[in-house]
């Protein structure tokens, strides 16, 4: 039978380069359509600082004095991508973040290229086409290639380094100096993006040893002495490659350039200390803290966010074994190396119990090696010497490829919200997994507002507030439109931008979606990724605390407490929830809402007390459990006294306005515990005591307020009012 694959190898080569050219065009052309993520402003600032450092020949150290600690912490990362973007921005009038996306997109394309080339050196040009198309048609990879300047370039550096490692080992014992140089540069660039790239040096040594052992057992070496000789022979070139790669990486990493000996260990130490950050993730329908993350968190995320042509590959491998399809031993060896590069980092973080969050974006670097292995499995299946089998498999592969590809076409530029059909796509993921944890959809929401909204009467601009994430992203895109203005206070806003990820602060939002007063939602396959809300007047919510209908149920006040939480009026959340408790003393949801509100007010002792009651009343209430555990984790943290006092005063005032003098006095006294000379609190106490008919205490409180602030007109009026009540 004619071997169609070999006879068409030249054709496959031409097709590969034509497809790659089209991919490059698509990625570059579309790169300006994507919104920035939370991290990009930091990355841009870091790149600008590093460029100043280089242009001043190391004299400009202004980064070290930046007031933003997050910016200063960027020194533990390389700046290879950021500096390229900063250089382009110096000579370009385009939007600086569009330039940033352009650079990242080119890196994403290079990853597709090396994914294809790696498959090519192992199984030919058809495998190269399959491998490149697999990576390109992975929506999570494609979309992140447009804005994620850390995780994607690091993944690209990893697969490029693995490619040159494989080429180096295939040619061994011959030493190709061009390959050695390219390998050193690839590893250097990877380290120059993230210190973890140093692992590639370990891979080089380990895989070199594995290749020589393979050669020995295959009879290529006649004796153990020759094996030892070959291994010894490799020490020098491997040492040179390793040393050269680290030295070159210093050019892309100023911190390491100034601290070449200690920088790697300090950087890796900094990254490992990320455990101090309590990530809070929606996973399998539950909100979990970092100490609750299951061992399979990363593997599960990979399965549910990658196309079926990847997730079904292990099953196809079993089919290959059953069919006893012969696979070249050397291909199996290098596939094992690529699988190791996929499995080992995941195994390491599982054993170390690392703090992982935001899906698996920090682990994207393990994906291209997996893609190559899966492409090789498909390639071997397609090489079965049965035309009918080849035809059926080709049709199946085309169908599996078109599923994510059509998703990408219909949901541009929101491709990264792809979820596998194994869980029902994004519809199955909604309320079970976090969707837009990176805030990239805010750009589209703001563009809709600029086109479709009108400013209220007597107001020149439409006031917008973002309820979740880094407001610098919303501010940036809002500043592009003269009719829009960003306001820091939600109460002042005409419209609110709400991501489903905000549910980590109020879980009920997801289960009552869409929020009240939603005017527009950006959808991905009929699933909302961001909502635009017409702002509710907060005063109207507060008036609902005293309904005209006296036959209200606990559910009325529970619902009101959620609306107040959405409006960030946490003091009145407590008021509303306590009203629910007055009607139903064993209402676990009311206690949970009080706990959540106290957490938001940074009053963790009160939060623990409320959370404990909720959990005791309903032990299987996951939301209450999470809020309670969060409060427990924060209870020993030092909170600014001024913030505590301010929030106790808010609570005291909220209860006074509701006519609850007992709680007014309770929270006023808590404020005085921290600031015993606060005249404002004594004024509030005076009014509360008047409300509760405790006139002597009211007079005493007013006199203390006046003593602390003799010029206070409020204290004078309160004292007169209190004394008049005694007559």
Structural descriptors:
727 residues; 35 helices; 7 strands
Count every helix, treating DSSP H or I runs of 4 or more residues as helices. 35
Largest sheet: 5 strands, mixed
State the oligomer: single chain
Mean pLDDT: 89
Report the uncertain regions: none
The helix fraction, in percent, is 55-70%
How is this structure best summarized?
With 727 residues, the chain is mainly alpha-helical.
Annotate the secondary structure layout.
Elements: H1 4-7, H2 9-30, H3 40-55, H4 69-72, H5 80-91, H6 96-123, H7 125-136, H8 139-144, H9 151-171, H10 177-191, H11 199-217, H12 224-249, H13 254-258, H14 263-272, E1 280-283, E2 286-289, H15 297-305, H16 308-311, H17 313-322, H18 329-352, H19 367-382, H20 387-410, H21 425-429, H22 442-452, E3 462-466, H23 471-478, E4 484-486, E5 495-498, H24 508-511, E6 518-524, E7 527-534, H25 538-543, H26 554-566, H27 570-583, H28 588-600, H29 604-617, H30 622-634, H31 641-657, H32 661-674, H33 679-691, H34 695-708, H35 713-724
Parallel strand pairs: 3-4, 3-5
Antiparallel strand pairs: 1-2, 5-7, 6-7
How would you explain this protein's 3D organization?
With 727 residues, the protein is mostly helical. The protein is 63% helix and 5% strand. A five-stranded mixed β-sheet has the order 4-3-5-7-6, covered by helices on one side. It has a two-stranded antiparallel ribbon with strand order 1-2. Helix 22 packs parallel to helix 23, helix 33 runs parallel beside helix 35 and helix 34 runs antiparallel to helix 35. The protein starts with a helix and ends with a helix. 46% of the residues are buried. The model has no long low-confidence stretch (mean pLDDT 89).
């Amino acid at each position: 039978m004619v071997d169609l694959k070999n006879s068409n190898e030249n054709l496959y080569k031409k097709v590969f380069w034509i497809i790659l050219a089209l991919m490059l065009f698509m990625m570059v052309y579309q790169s300006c359509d994507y919104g920035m993520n939370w991290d990009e402003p930091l990355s841009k600032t870091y790149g600008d600082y590093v460029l100043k450092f280089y242009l001043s020949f190391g004299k400009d150290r202004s980064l070290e004095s930046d007031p933003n600690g997050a910016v200063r912490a960027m020194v533990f990362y390389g700046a290879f991508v950021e500096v390229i973007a900063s250089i382009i921005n110096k000579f370009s009038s385009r939007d600086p973040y569009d330039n940033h996306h352009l650079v990242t997109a080119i890196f994403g394309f290079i990853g597709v290229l090396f994914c294809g080339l790696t498959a090519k050196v192992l199984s030919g040009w058809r495998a190269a086409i399959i491998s490149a198309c697999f990576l390109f048609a992975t929506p999570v990879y494609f979309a992140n290639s447009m804005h994620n300047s850390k995780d994607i370039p690091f993944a690209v550096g990893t697969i490029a380094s693995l490619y040159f490692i494989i080429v180096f080992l295939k040619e061994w014992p011959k030493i190709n100096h061009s390959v050695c140089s390219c390998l050193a540069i690839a590893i250097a660039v990877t380290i120059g993006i993230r210190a973890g790239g140093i692992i590639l040096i370990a891979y080089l040594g380990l895989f070199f040893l594995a290749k020589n052992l393979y050669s020995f057992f295959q009879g290529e070496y006649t004796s153990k002495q020759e094996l030892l000789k070959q291994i010894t022979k490799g020490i020098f070139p491997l040492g040179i490659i390793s040393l050269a790669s680290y030295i070159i990486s210093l050019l892309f990493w100023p911190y390491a350039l100034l601290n070449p000996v200690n920088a790697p260990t300090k950087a890796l130490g900094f990254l490992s200390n990320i455990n101090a950050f309590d990530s809070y993730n929606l996973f399998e329908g539950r909100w979990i803290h970092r100490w609750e993350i299951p061992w399979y968190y990363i593997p599960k995320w990979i399965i549910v966010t990658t196309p079926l042509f990847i997730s079904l590959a292990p099953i196809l491998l079993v089919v290959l074994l059953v069919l006893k399809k012969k696979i070249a031993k050397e291909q199996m060896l290098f596939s094992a190396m690529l699988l190791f590069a996929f499995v080992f980092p995941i195994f390491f973080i599982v054993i170390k119990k690392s703090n992982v969050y935001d899906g698996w974006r920090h682990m994207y670097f393990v994906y291209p090696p997996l893609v190559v292995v899966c492409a090789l499995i498909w390639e071997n299946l397609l090489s079965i010497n049965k035309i009918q089998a080849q035809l059926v498999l080709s049709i199946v592969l085309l169908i599996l490829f078109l599923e994510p590809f059509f998703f990408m076409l219909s949901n541009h530029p929101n491709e990264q919200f792809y979820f596998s059909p194994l869980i029902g796509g994004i519809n199955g993921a909604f309320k079970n997994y976090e969707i837009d944890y990176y805030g990239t959809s805010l750009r589209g929401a703001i563009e809709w507002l600029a086109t479709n909204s009108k400013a209220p009467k007597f107001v020149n601009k439409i006031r917008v507030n973002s309820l979740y994430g880094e407001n610098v992203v919303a501010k940036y895109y809002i500043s592009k439109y003269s009719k829009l203005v960003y306001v820091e206070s939600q109460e002042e806003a005409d419209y609110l931008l709400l991501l489903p990820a905000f549910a980590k602060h109020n879980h009920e939002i997801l289960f009552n979606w869409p929020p009240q007063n939603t005017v527009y939602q950006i959808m991905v396959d009929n699933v909302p990724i961001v909502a635009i809300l017409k702002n509710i007047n907060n005063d109207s919510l507060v008036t609902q605390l005293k309904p005209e209908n006296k036959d209200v149920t606990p559910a009325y006040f529970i619902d009101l407490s959620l609306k107040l939480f959405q409006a960030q009026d946490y003091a009145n959340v407590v008021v509303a929830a306590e009203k629910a408790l007055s009607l139903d003393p064993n209402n676990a949801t009311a206690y949970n809402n009080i706990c959540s509100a106290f957490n938001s007010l940074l009053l963790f002792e009160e939060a623990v007390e409320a959370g404990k009651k909720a959990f005791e009343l309903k032990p299987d209430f996951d939301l209450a459990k999470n809020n309670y555990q969060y409060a427990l984790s924060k209870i020993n943290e030092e909170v600014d006294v001024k913030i505590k006092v301010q929030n106790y005063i808010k609570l005291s005032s909220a209860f006074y306005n509701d006519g609850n003098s007992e709680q007014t006095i309770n929270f006023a006294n808590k404020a005085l515990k921290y600031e015993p000379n606060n005249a404002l609190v004594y004024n509030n106490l005076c009014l509360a005591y008047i409300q509760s008919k405790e006139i002597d205490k009211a007079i005493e409180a007013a006199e203390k307020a006046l003593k602390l602030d003799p010029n206070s007109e409020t204290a004078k009026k309160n004292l007169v009012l209190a004394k008049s009540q005694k007559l």
